Amino acid sequence: MFKISSKEKKGLSFVELQNSSKTTKAKICLEQGARVVSLKFKDKFIIEDYSDFDYKESYASSILFPFASRIKEGKYIFEGNDYQFETNDGHNALHGLVYNKKFELFEPEEHKDNCSATFNYYEKNESKGFPFTYFLSVTYILFEDRLKVRVTVKNTDTKSFPFTLGWHPYFNSTDLKNSYLSFNSDQKVEFDKSLITKKVIEQKSPEIFKIEEQQLDDCFILKDNNVSFTTPTYKIDITADPEQNFLQLYTPKGKDIIAIEPMTGISDTFNNKIGLQVLEANKTYVLNWDLKFSAD
Description:
mainly beta, globular, 2 helices, 13-stranded antiparallel beta sheet
């Protein structure tokens, strides 16, 4: 039987989902945007927190809404109106508005072969940069060899709003230089020095994308919805159900971890419109990410 438990530590609330043998486990923090703090498969930590890699700077495993990546100077125009986000990344706005919001646990379920928990956030206050109300729900379903993530967005306002969604998990490797990715892309996003999109260029990615000595901070437009990451000790396959998918890769210096970020838009999407979606009043949008694990 899979089990769900709750814990508190240093003023933070955590919910743990785990299998009967406790070898597969996901730990979620309510106060940090319902992010996955750690993920273990067959006693191997695929995702874990590092004391020298503060969440306020890493955004590790955060859900990114209403935008992923950056918006230039925090400014955008929507339906003829000018808006200004607070800038939290130099002169730019970064990673949306919910990464530091407290979510509420809702409807935990325990079953023989899986368990699930839903985390809800109700935004009832209109902010200056995003003067809209909304409901955001994140459901994690843990199986023996899989984690399913479902994000539901409902526009509770009387007017439409623009949005993109993203997820920012960092995955461990015992040897990142000898790990590799596989994905299908023939277009790459070219950034300026502030990581704001300049243009999209034609560039075919190799079938085996070796990490080696690369310091990555790159974004690719995917031709399908599949990305795999292979390390010396495990492999993970990530799938997404949107029709258009984008992949951001980032390797922080000095660590054997890599951010593999599925997104529905790119840097400065609110201005360049690449991947931008509009959610009408009282409408709902649902997105699914599926992580399948296998071990050597």
